[in-house]
Design brief:
By secondary structure, the chain is an all-alpha fold. About 80% of the residues lie in helices and about 0% in strands. The protein is built from 14 helices and 2 strands. It is globular, with a radius of gyration of 19 Å.
Amino acid sequence: MELFGKLFAIDFAVAQEYFTGTSTRFALAVVFFIIGLLLIMLGGDKFVDASITISKKLGIPEIIVGATIVSLGTTLPEVLVSTTAAVSGGTGGDMAVGNAFGSIVCNTALIAAITQLFKPTKNVSVSSIGWRSILFFATYVIVSTIGLITGKVNFMVGIGLLLAFCLYAFLSIKLSGGEDSSEDSENSDGSVITAVITLIVCAGILFVGAKFLVNCGASIAEKLGVPEAVISVTFIALGTSLPELVTAVSSMVKGYANVSVGNIIGANTLNLLLVIGIPAAAKGISISELDSFKVTAFTGLVVMLLFILPFVVKKKGFRWQGGLLLLIYAAYSVSQFVMAK
């Protein structure tokens, strides 16, 4: 029962103490890694269905649902990992910042790239992504500049980010009525209450699955000799971004591509406002690996520009856009391994 309690508390590192032998612990890590992956796949699929039900029942544009409800749910793993890492001290600040900026790169150059490569998004509402893009880039430039100059993100910056999140939430609600509305509101299955309950349950499933995935994945990576500096901006960033990946693929398959676009923009914005804002406001976070941060921050800015500009100019995505983003992600990942040696 005690072991079950430890696992139920999602404290994999503590749970491992009940087992002796490196091979047993490694096998346990692999098993729970697979469980985490399955939970994320299940939760992400149902999360999209519930979000679309809310979108149609309330007449809210799909891209708005993706940029608010969906992105908030899929960003929970990043918030958890970064806050826990920063509060724990040591090199936690590097992990918090690396996870946030690394997730932005992963969300855009890998996840968004896959959706555009296989099924480019069409008829994107510029009014829906316009002000959100401006808020994202303004926040991104400010936070990355402060981080590069001072080597930290202090308490005041954290408070500013949380206030910016309040503004983001307010504008999302206030302006949603003037943006393109969702059609066929009477043709969707299920009630709003049932969909909201499903959202909450699925968010919990994503939360647990991502925690298993990150803890066990980090353990597996360390056993295989992956450098610690690489883990936060690549492996952990990829692990905590898996809800976005599952949501993007599920949205693409179900024909709701605008949900995926909104989710990427919303999740990237929340990575700045919450994933960095919460731990910075709680304790302040430092950045010791400035060289790695420079590369990650620059890459994140480039891939977001490459992702958003075609939607603003042409109101649609392109296959070449997805292919180029994937190449950039591959080059970025290789650079992180090279710099870590």
